[in-house]
Design a protein that fits this description.
The complex is a heterodimer of chains A (about 120) and B (about 110). Helices cover about 0% and strands about 50% of the residues of chain A. Chain A is mainly β and about 120 residues long. In chain A, strands 2, 4, 5, 6, 9, 10 and 11 form a 7-stranded mixed sheet that branches. A 4-stranded antiparallel sheet of chain A has the order 1-3-8-7, with no helix packed on it. The radius of gyration of chain A is 13 Å and the shape is globular. Chain B is built from no helices and 11 strands. Chain B has strands spanning about 5, 10-15, 20-25, 30-40, 45-50, 55-60, 60-65, 70-75, 85-90, 100, 105-110. With about 110 residues, chain B is mostly beta strands. The chains are: A mainly beta (about 120), B mainly beta (about 110). The interface of A and B includes residues 4, 6 and 97 of A.
Chain lengths: ~120, ~110
């Protein structure tokens, strides 16, 4: 069984730039959620993708957007980067929420630094 | 008030001690409760997953949920230095978004 993978591991950008982070879900999982984890804090839900559509969104502005592909992999795009966007970005895969199984399995994360 | 409250610690214990980690929450609609372990600069690893009230045991780990008090706990028996990590409690938000709401995390250090 293949776990959740994310790329890149680390990324440094400057304010105002755009970034794309990538995630491959665990085999057998077709739902992907993205979280932002600031230093010393718990992860904050950004959004979830199921069947290539956004299925719920947290309190993040529209410059945070995503995609899911037919193979269930996903991208998180952040435009107009701000210093406060510096964080660990986590991807989690799971079975569909409606199945009653709510276990989410996380990847290693992408550490984004905005200068 | 945060929906999920967790003492950030740090908590330092000697090897072999019993560790108790706790979270409180405010939303009585929460039904699914999780504990994750996160090593420094790594992704969270799912340790325990419970539904509604009651206890669940897995090896040295026991998770307890008391919905009447809106309080969940994770107990670690015979703690080891390798248990040193940040422990995050999480609860699934009501509805079908799959959103998990996390506590701040408690940093645990087990000293040899």
């Amino acid at each position: 069984e293949t776990g959740v993978t994310q790329s890149p591991t680390h990324l440094i950008k400057t304010r105002g730039q755009q970034v794309t982070l990538r995630c491959s879900s665990q085999s057998g999982h077709n739902t992907v959620s993205w979280y932002q984890q600031a230093l010393g804090q718990g992860p904050q839900f950004i959004f979830q993708y199921y069947r290539e559509e956004e299925n719920g969104r947290g309190n993040f502005p529209p410059r945070f957007s995503g995609l899911q592909f037919p193979n269930y992999s996903s991208e998180l795009n952040v435009n107009a980067l701000e210093l406060d966007d510096s964080a660990l970005y986590l991807c989690a895969s799971s079975l569909p929420t409606g199945t009653g199984n709510n276990e989410q399995f996380f990847g290693p994360g992408t550490r984004l630094t905005v200068l | 008030q945060k929906e999920v409250e967790q003492d950030p610690g740090p908590l330092s214990v000697p090897e072999g001690a019993i560790v108790s980690l706790n979270c409180t929450y405010s939303n009585s609609a929460f039904q699914y409760f999780m504990w994750y372990r996160q090593y420094s600069r790594k992704g969270p690893e799912l340790l325990m997953y419970t539904y509604s009230s009651g206890n669940k045991e897995d090896g040295r780990f026991t998770a307890q949920v008391d919905k009447s008090s809106k309080y969940i706990s994770l107990f670690i028996r015979d703690s080891q230095p390798s248990d040193s990590a940040t422990y995050l409690c999480a609860m699934k938000a009501p509805g079908n978004t799959g959103k998990l709401i996390f506590g701040q995390g408690t940093t645990l250090q087990v000293k040899p």
